[in-house]
Amino acid sequence: RVRIPLPVSNILWEHCIRLANRTLVEGYANVKKCSNEGRALMQLDFQQFLMKLEKLTDIRPIPDKEFVETYIKAYYLTENDMERWIKEHREYSTKQLTNLVNVCLGSHINKKARQKLLAAIDDMDRPKR
C-alpha cells in the first residue's frame, strides 16, 4: 500500500468525478428513445450516484454536477424554451444538443420546427470550423 497525500487524493477524485459526470451526459446523449419515466430514472440514478460519491469523498462541490443536472432537465423543455436553451448552453457538444432535439422533442414537434432547432445547433457550431 502506498499512502497518497490528501491534496493529491483530492485532485485524483476531482478528475475521476468530472470524467464520470461527462461520461453520464455522453451516455444520455446516446439514448434513442426516452419516456417521461426514463427521464425520471435519469434523475434518480444521478441522485444515487451523488449520494454514493458524498460517502466516498469530501470533495465539495461535486465537479460538473450542474453539467449533468442541466442536461437532464433539458429533456423537459418545450420547443420554444429549447431554442433559447441551446443558444445559452455552448458547453454541450453538437451531438449532445442534436440528440436532445431528436429524442425529447422528436415526437412532440413537427419536422419544420425540428429542422429549425437543428439549424440553430448547426449555426452555433459553424464558427468553430
UniProtKB/TrEMBL annotation:
The residues covered by the Syndetin C-terminal domain are 3-122
List, alphabetically, the PANTHER family matched. SYNDETIN
Enumerate the Pfam families for this protein: Syndetin_C
InterPro entries recorded for this chain?
Syndetin_C (IPR019514), VPS50 (IPR040047)
Give GO terms for biological process: endocytic recycling; retrograde transport, endosome to Golgi
Protein name, please? VPS50 protein
Provide GO CC annotations from the record. cytosol; EARP complex
Q: Name one GO molecular function term.
A: SNARE binding
Show which residues constitute the signal peptide.
none
